[in-house]
Amino acid sequence: METVTLTHTAALARLGYALSDGTRARVLLSLREAPAYPSDLADALGVSRQVMSNQLACLRGCGLVEAIPDGRRTWYRLADPHLAHALGDMLQLVLAVDPDCCGPDCRCA
């Protein structure tokens, strides 16, 4: 078993923070499928370009996405290919969670 370090816990905390916002989670899931331009992501997710810019800046700051210059435009992709697999694994876990539990109206107590 691998020793857990502060680097590991910090990486998980950044991922948790990113996933705690629905728009950021949707951006990550979209980029899991393919790299994209911010304007295309904004249109696909139904948010303003300013909101998308802010969310991408946050995800860049967390080290989860990277910006790739393309002439006068910039496209985005996941910073690490392992992230796509991890998101896929987490989606499988989420599907097994009771939707009436652990949400804003949690009735598990």
Automatic annotation (TrEMBL):
It comes from the Bacteria. CDD domains: HTH_ARSR (cd00090). SUPFAM superfamilies: Winged helix' DNA-binding domain. It holds the Pfam family HTH_5. InterPro entries: ArsR-like_HTH, HTH_ArsR_DNA-bd_dom, HTH_Metal-responsive_Reg, WH-like_DNA-bd_sf, WH_DNA-bd_sf. Residues 4-98 form the HTH arsR-type domain. PANTHER family: HTH-TYPE TRANSCRIPTIONAL REGULATOR CMTR, TRANSCRIPTIONAL REGULATOR-RELATED. NCBIfam families: HTH_metalloreg. This is Winged helix-turn-helix domain-containing protein. It comes from Georgenia halophila. The lineage of its organism: Bacteria, Bacillati, Actinomycetota, Actinomycetes, Micrococcales.
